[in-house]
Amino acid sequence: CSVLKKMDDSLLSMSVALGTMLLEVAAAVALGVVVCLLVFRKKKVEETLEAEDGWWGAGQRPESAEDETIRPFRVQTSTEEIQDLYRRIDQTRPVPSLEESRFHYGFNSTYLQKVVSYWRNEFDWEKQVAKLNKYPHFKTKIDGLDIHFIHVRPPHLPEGKTAIPLLMVHGWPSSFFEFYGILPLLTEPANPDDIVFQVICPSIPGYGFSEAPHKQGFDSVCAAHIFYKLMKRLGFNEFYAQGGDWGCLICTNIAQLQPSRVKGLHLSFLSVANPGLIAGLSLLFGQRFPGLFELKDHDVKRLFPFMKKVVVELLKESGYLHIQATKPDTAGRALNDSPVGLAVYILEKFSTWTDPEFRNLEDGGLERKYSIDDLLTNVMIYWVTGSIISSMRLYKEILGRGVGTQKHDKVPVRVPTAVACFPNELVHLPKIWAKQKYPNVVSFNYLPRGGHFGAFEEPELLAADIQSFVKK
Predict the structure, then answer these.
(1) Contact, 228 vs 261, CB < 8 A?
(2) Does this entry carry the keyword Membrane (predicted)?
(3) Catalytically annotated residue among 143, 194, 219, 245
């Protein structure tokens, strides 16, 4: 009887195991069929995005034609502005951080005192202004706004080569200065087989030295329309576009508006508002069947468990987003008056968005990846232009209407697209998600290191990925 019971138990276990295996195989087959139907379903008629010329300047549009002159511009500040900055820094009231809190409550006050002391007593703004003016700056009026940009041409173009136009667009809380490390790598590549670029880096309207919109409704599509007109005004009928953060969305919108003009789209950040059913299925079954959803080890590591790796991390880092998407002028007014408050608000992002583990360090790891001079230069661009409020308003204009509800959220991007995946990026989207919006992904690379500010932090890696994509 004992032997027979063991045989029965063994047979029962085998039956359960076999049944489970058959269910998993059936589920995998069913999922495979669904995925195939989704991936290979008949394509809809290609859509493009449309944008009308707007008027974002003060008052009514003038009857006379807009002045399309491109004017040279230089960064400069007065002694009075710097003295006012010092006075405001001197009047700051220090607040101690909690013991052992490091960067878990935000910017650590003990380390902040060191940064503020350096800013007040040692930071050489004039030297940084000279660095900013190393490249030629320009301004031009488009749709009522004075648009600032730098246009960097190769100083020594090899014989027989043409400088390929590349538009690079920054995000928040960054600026055109984010690209200063990558510019020489693109315009003066060391490898003679590399492509030589001429790079155009505009400031988003309301950021830095670009005039802020005076009217409601200026979103990423409006910025894209202006930047396309800028490239056209510069004489470029075709060009490549690259962006991260808001730059990703703006460059995506340019490709949607003018797919025949954008030869290639390179993104170092992805945010697909409507990933669709395929994303839901991959979240449910991707950890068990990664190959079915083209998920690599890196994808599985970043996505699962989903609640801990994605939802909780986003909640930790997105408080600013809700404020700026609802009441930007309220918090912005305080930041516009306090240079130290502005520095804390901006610099904290360069800590945790570069590496979430930097929260565990007393100094937030800021000097592990960046120099304090460069970080403060980015802060100064916001301070001397008084642009923090207008930069924050872009969140209200884009997100305030609802996520995934706008036409640009639904129109696919047909131009050749590359995605550079930095491992510490705020949001990770696997290739199969990206292809729901960017069906013509020709390059999707997992880079060995780096976070949200890829061009600023790892210019060599990003430059190499851009080179590889454009060659392809």
Answers:
(1) yes
(2) yes
(3) 245
